[in-house]
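Dear colleagues,

I hope this message finds you well. In preparation for our joint manuscript, I am sending the ABC transporter ATP-binding protein (Vagococcus entomophilus) sequence together with its predicted structure, so that both groups work from identical material. I would be grateful if you could confirm receipt.
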Amino acid sequence: MLKVENISVHYGMIEAVKNVSFEVKAGEIVSLIGANGAGKTTILRTISGLVRPSQGRIQFEGKPIEKLVPQKIVASGLAQVPEGRHVFSGLSVMENLEMGAYLVKDKKKISETLEMIFDRFPILAERKNQDASTLSGGEQQMLAMGRALMSQPKLLLLDEPSMGLAPIFIQEIFNIIQEIKKQGTTVLLIEQNAKIALSIADRGYVLETGNVVLKGSGKELLASDEVQKAYLGG
Ligand code: ATP
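The corresponding structure tokens are as follows:
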């Protein structure tokens, strides 16, 4: 579904991503893990068209997307939940969700998707008229995920959904990610929390200073000495 081939990304003189390749197949959860500054966010921003690669190709469902503007990329079926959530404060929960459907013209489809999201995140239904900025961190993460799902993406990109959340919320968010997969949405997950990200991943890639240094199934990576030593304190 998504094929990233040999991309490099520069910020001025800094090469933040170096010749990285990976792929995500339809129906999978794929996790990219790595420490602070490994280049994870840069890769996601490159896929969604917010940053341009200095070399390489990105294909989504067989079509090149590395030169498209972000709106076109979203319209092709890809949605990103940014790091730190970025919900719109001053707007209600409902209005935030509606913003996620700005490319969807069909009103009936919008209300059906909204129903589905309220089913999956009952707390958002309860809080639908509340200002988004008054939600807790975990609730804001749910809202950001719900907002991305409003465009009914085929591929959901999640940037550090566990960041700043209490363990109980992390578990809940990761249960929801598995539900999202079961309902047919493919997921690319970027995480520093290697343990939980690999435990739900079909496959994973380990990034270090802009390079892919290891890849394998979620299980294999969790069990590998390198991952145990570098990320799990083992
Ligand atoms: P984190 O988990 O801390 O967000 P990350 O793995 O997502 O880390 P990136 O945010 O992609 O890493 O950053 C990769 C490298 O690129 C870092 O060295 C960072 O300082 C640098 N970088 C990121 N954004 C910019 C920018 N706008 N200008 C210059 N350098 C940047």
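For the figure legend, we might mention the following. The first helix runs from residue 40 to 47. The chain has a mean pLDDT of 93.

With kind regards,
E.M.
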